[in-house]
Amino acid sequence: MYTAYIGRKLVTLYNQRKGTNLNVEAFFDTVFYPLFFDDARYLLHVHNALPFQHAKFAHDPIKRKNTKIELHKLIQTVAPNGSTFVGAAASGVDGTTSGQVTSLNLGLSTEDSYASWIGAGLGIGLEGGYSILIDSNEVIWATYEGWKQYRNRLKDTPNQKGNQINTWNGVWLSHCLNKRFNSGSPMLGFDYSMFQSKGDQAGVKTQSWIKVIFALANQHPNQNLIAYVYSLGQMNKTIGFIQINLPQVKRLNEIYLHLVKLSEFEIAQQQLEDVYDTEFSFKRACMLGNIGLRALEPSKLREIMTGKKNFKPPKDEATAITFTIYQTWITAMLDNKQLLEKSQEIAKHLRDFVREDRQGKTTRKNLVDKILDANSRKAFIENVKEAILSGSLDDQFFDDIVTEIMFMPADHFPLFMTLIRFKYAIESNK
Questions:
Q1: What pTM did the predictor assign?
Q2: CA distance 430 to 426
Q3: Per-domain residue ranges for the chain?
């Protein structure tokens, strides 16, 4: 039903920005249908939409016109169901979406049916076959403006696959909400690797969900958005409404800029967005209840935090960026820049403690390794105590550190220790 709500929003926006006064049906007839269906290749595939089941009709303009007439007739004479209202229940109890069937009068009008088709065209396709709808005028309008770009691609590329408007919407938004987007030349700088060939056809790749989230953060840096997450097919699936915490996402950019010390924010932001990869699939991220910093945990960081993988000092630009991304996320999760500075100071103290070891002994190195391997606050304190008793480790400095750790939330300690390990790896490599 949310497809109808979002579809109506677009019609309202269209009238406001174009100076027209179209109702939903008129918009469907004059704007939506010609762009989506009046061509041999459709932009959208609607499951169970009976008039569109005969793909061969698409190649004949007269039959396409008759298909439209048939759809109008069904919408205006049959109670809303999955074949006339996108996202609605099956028409009977035997269909795969019959679980949605109800005897309640939902008060749906023919305008709602037309609006549901329009809203379905605004779904932003992400991995796992899921799409999201976002109640934001800016996102809705940006998505709408991308429709004609996909149609242009179909016209210019004979082997380009149709029916991928939702997948396209995700790719388009990650492009058009970028700071470098040029509205005068909308395809300038487009990542054409998002078109992939398979056999004789070229399709649109599904955009990484994190790139879409970063794109939304560019447009709404100080706002939480509510996304409706669903999948429409032979079996409709609904995850429901999920909050996207974009201020937290934007904070990653700010911390990354601080760490890499680039003078241009946009360069750092683009660098971060280009390589960022997450530990969670989109579905698993939704299962956290909201999409914020927790859902943006970098890929493979957990292996380092649990000691399953040793992270060596970076020796090239790619691993250096990954190294910085890990530190960025941990710092954002700790939400305390002072801890970032503390980890740096701890790393320097430990480095100097090892280098001052006389006659090339490894005693101090072994003590430091034990400190870095600590997986609990108790183990950290015991290992620091042992190092202080054995030599010239600064007892006053580490006394303050122990106090800080004792008052630290338990779930922050593993993050802080990982940050110290990163900083020590850098310092010991200098």
A1: 0.87
A2: 7
A3: 2-242, 337-428
